[in-house]
């Protein structure tokens, strides 16, 4: 009798082993990166009057960060940090690359895609690249096995703000025809606003197809959405449906897209062990008025080193490990995604120095952990405009773009006139003054001294154009032959 019981126990144990092994398998990873979505653009971050129920559901099933930072408030620089784990200026990247830009992300830099590919992951990208406009500076040279998308933003095209062909004597009119790229091969032209209106749905279909095709092996999907970057465009199935204008319609389609990703994971039994990250490359481009989002009350927006430019939504869901409905108020930045995923997926960290921190302890809510307690606000080519440590932000004298002049804001797809403002040395307490309105440096001189010392560390290592310091630990971008 005893022998029979032990045989039964052994059989049950062996039958359970595959299920346990399946739970412990390397997780799939989906990084959904929005374009110019502000901190206050999602319903779960206070956005209104449109609704984002699928993104709300994603947040309810995972963790929502309230202090997440994009590395810089502009496209190419920000995207380089998400993929490489480095401050952009460490690797020679700045600004937003135009079609005739002379630099690109150096293919020698390791990316999330390349390190996970080396671990055996299938890797794919859908959407906006913006780190190099032609081979060998397209995604297939950076660890991605598949790519469907655009080489840069869909406003780099010979089309005016009203959707009509641009005057060929202007810079806009001289841009080349915008074309989708499949792998490394240019294809269909995106030549009108109606063409642009197909992008969100088409990309979503490509993304869900990638998930289905690779459901039986670990995969990394980078889904770089084109919206809500201007020019806003939405498919017929959502046009006029939000009751909140074109921006609300676009947000409604974005939310639908997230829902399609989630449904595909559910239908293929992948939800439990798939990490889904939803975030934005920078804050809203406020000069476009009602075609731009909102910062949730933070100062300024895209194109600045203020909170409204770089503090963005960040949601991460991983049912196997993250407590549903959790909120993290600790600081995290785009550079931290790579080392965190490398740790989770059992891959190898990049050989060259990066700036990211492993944030897994925050995802698991380990008590008394705080991997990142400081952040450097860089902008322009390599200007250190501020330092955050804990609740404090110290800004340095510089010139900044500003939206605080009426002429800087326009509506209905047309930009305002760019304006500038002089920034002084100032100390702000983000705990009590998240809008950065009250300078308290005279009251807290010891804090000013502490943050100034931190700034010197970044200046010596990465550089600072404002103080004319060249960093000792920087690496060059790739040079592009634009002929």
Characterise this structure.
GO terms for molecular function: arylsulfatase activity; metal ion binding. Belongs to the sulfatase family. The protein is of the alpha/beta class. The protein folds into 2 domains: 25-372, 3-Layer(aba) Sandwich (Alkaline Phosphatase, subunit A), CATH 3.40.720; 376-475, Arylsulfatase, C-terminal domain. The chain contains 11 helices and 20 strands. It has helices at 2-23, 53-60, 75-84, 112-118, 193-196, 199-213, 245-267, 307-310, 337-345, 360-363, 445-461, and strands at 28-34, 63-69, 103-104, 122-128, 146-150, 179-182, 185-189, 219-224, 274-280, 314-317, 326-333, 374-379, 383-389, 392-395, 398-402, 419-423, 426-429, 463-464, 469-470, 478-479. The strands form 5 sheets. The chain has a 10-stranded mixed sheet, with helices on both faces. It has a 4-stranded antiparallel sheet with strand order 12-13-14-17, covered by helices on one side. Strands 3-20 form a two-stranded antiparallel ribbon. A hairpin with a 2-residue loop joins strand 6 (179-182) and strand 7 (185-189). Helix 2 packs across helix 7 (245-267). The protein is globular and about 55 Å long. The termini are far apart. Residues 5-23 have low confidence and may be disordered.
